[in-house]
Specification:
Helices cover about 20% and strands about 40% of the residues. It has helices at about 15-25, 40-45, 155-165, 175-180, 235-240, 250-255, and strands at about 30-35, 55-60, 65-70, 75-80, 85-90, 125-130, 130-140, 140-145, 150-155, 175, 185-190, 200-210, 215-225, 230-235, 245-250. The strands form three sheets. Strands 8-7-6-11-12-13-14-10 form an eight-stranded antiparallel beta sheet. A five-stranded antiparallel beta sheet has the order 1-5-4-3-2, with no helix packed on it. It has a two-stranded antiparallel sheet with strand order 9-15. Strand 13 and strand 14 (about 230-235) form a beta hairpin. The longest helix is centred in the N-terminal third of the chain and has 13 residues, at about 15-25. It is elongated.
Amino acid sequence: QKWVSKDFSDLDLNQNLVRQTIKDLAETTIQDYLFEGDPSELDKKKKGLLPSPVHIELESVMGNWSASLNLNNDDKAFYALTSRPTFLVSLDMSRWEKFANLTLDSLRDRKSMMTFSKTEVQKVFAKSEGKEYNFSNENKTWVLNSKLPEQSEFLPIQAEKILNEIHDLEVSEFISTELSKQFVGNNMFILSSATDQLVFQLNWGPLVKIKMNGSEKEVYLARTQLSKKIFAIDKQKIDDLKLDKIFKKTETAQTL
């Protein structure tokens, strides 16, 4: 059984996050039953439940259930208005942080488009900032198969670190269709098996600015072979994959 959004059924949700949210709701302690039935519009407004900052609706074969949630700073209380049955209740305030930033976007699946088996990766092609390199895993050690930059030394440990960082990547932000049209993807990592079977491919570029929660941030537009969807990865996450990290200057170069 899979959890989906009733209004946006095309969105992939993180099933574990949805289950955890439902579990958190079920484990939240009711401190007081304040009103049975539907309270007045005035009472709802006073408690910040009309509208509420967080509203949850669940549908199942057993029926529908919903809850409107708000932390009222004036009353220093965490209120919930539930349906089926309808109650106005106060909840344990310490639980508010689990729901304060709950949105449909926060429940979206940010990992499946970036998932691959790291143990299958035996060859890497990397292209970034006009530079291209190939390296492969030979006897459990990464070996550079491209021309070594002058007065430089290849660092197998750093190559392994970059692979780990790629494996840990997640979607930072989901973007509009209009913004996705700017995607170019000239930079890339192509990860292959020992028999040259594609394991994972990440393309990114260009760097753009987007507004999130009232502030501006820099992100790279990106895509993998696992989906046609274009998404955004934080600038710092991509900058951490810079190819310069897999080399260090030799002592001769450092003394010149």
